[in-house]
Predict the 3D structure of the following.
Amino acid sequence: MSDESSPHRTAAVIPAAGRGIRLGPGAPKALRTLGGTPMLVHAVRAMAASRAVSLVVVVAPPDDAGAVKLLLDEHSLPTRTDYLVVPGGETRQESVRLGVEALPDDITTVLVHDAARPLVPVDTVDAVVDAVRAGAPAVVPALPLADTVKEVEPGEKDQPEPVVATPERARLRAVQTPQGFDRDTLVRAHLTVPLAGQGATDDAGLVEQLGAPVVVVPGHEEAFKVTRPLDLVLAEAVLARRRANDGF
Ligand code: CTP
Ligand code: MG
C-alpha cells in the first residue's frame, strides 16, 4: 500500500497552463469553477488526497502564477502536503518539463496529472503510484473505448475524409491521468524527445519513444477530461451525485 513512511517520495506535477480554447471564451480552463470551486483546486485536492503524495507542483498560466498562488492559499488543502507554483509554457509538453525541473532532489516517483481532470478518484491515483513503486518505469490509467475508432486521411474542412484503417477496438485504450513515472525515466524522456509541432499530449508517449516499457492500469470514468462545454455539465452532475451520496 502507498504510505508516507515509504523511503520513496512522490510528487504530483499538475499542468494547468492551458487556455481551454475548446471550452469557449472565458478564464483559463483551470481557473473555471465546478460547484463553485476552481477546477484546479479540485485537481490539487485529488492529488493531495493520496497519502503517497507529499508535494504538488502546479504549473500555472504564465500571467496568472501569482493569482494561482493566492488561490491555493485561500482554499483549504491538506497540510501534510507541500505546494509549489511555477509558470508554464506554450505547450503541455513544455509546461510539464518546467514542472519536473522544479522538483526537489529527494522525489523518486512523479505523477503528471491534467488540471482538466478534476474528479479523478483517489483509488486511481493510488493504483498508479503502487504500480510505479512495484517497479514499472511508466504507468498509465486507461479505459476500453465505447466507440469504434477509424483512422482517416484528414482532408479539407467539411469534406468527407477517406478511411485508412479500423483498428480492432478490443485492443484500444483511452488514456487518462495521473500518469506515473520513475523520476529518472520521465526526466530522460523530456530531455531526449524533441518538441515537435504542438508537442506531446501524453507523457507516456515520450517514454515509449525512449524504448522504455509503459504499462496500463484500470482508469476510472470520473477521470474524464473537461474539454468541451458538455463536459462541464457532466462534471457538475458527478459533483452533485457525490454530494448527495455524502449526505447519506
Ligand atoms: N496545458 C499546460 N500548458 C499548455 C497547454 C496545456 O499546462 N501550454 C495543460 C492544460 O492546462 C490541461 C492539460 O494540459 O490541464 C491538458 O490539456 P488540454 O485539455 O488540451 O487543455 P487546454 O490546452 O487548456 O485546452 P484547449 O486545448 O482546448 O485549449
Ligand atoms: Mg490543449
